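Good morning C.,

I know you're traveling, so I'll keep this short. The sequence:
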Amino acid sequence: MKIIKYSILALVFIWFVTLVGCKDYDEATPSQTEIQLNTLMNGGTNWVLASNGVIKDGFNVTSQFTGFKLNIGNKTYSSENGLNPVWPTSGTWDFQNNDPGLILRDDGVLITVNVSSSNLTLTFNANGVSTGGRNSSVSGEYQFHLISE
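The tokens, ready to paste straight into the viewer:
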């Protein structure tokens, strides 16, 4: 009788250990867009200009964006010294067709994204004339090379 009792107890113990040690398969693996969103949000820290700054149509125009900062939130953004319409002061965005390499701003600008843990390159075409008395157009292809602040 003791053998049966200890055998049942051993089986219950093995079952319990197996159950506790199993991974919860209900935990969803994050999608590529979720991983990209987390990287873009940069822990709430701003993105600022890297040494190669801003290239417009092949020319370095970093001096036009002195003090530029970009903060990317959960499908929102805010910027400082962004030279509207290149970077409006705030807005929303979403991944284009769930592609983590393309984001679409709420003003219709499609941006190609290349990001690592501390470097971000954004490439897009801006159209229009800047506000604030500037007469020359700011239209063209921009590459913003950013680093974590």
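Safe travels,
E.
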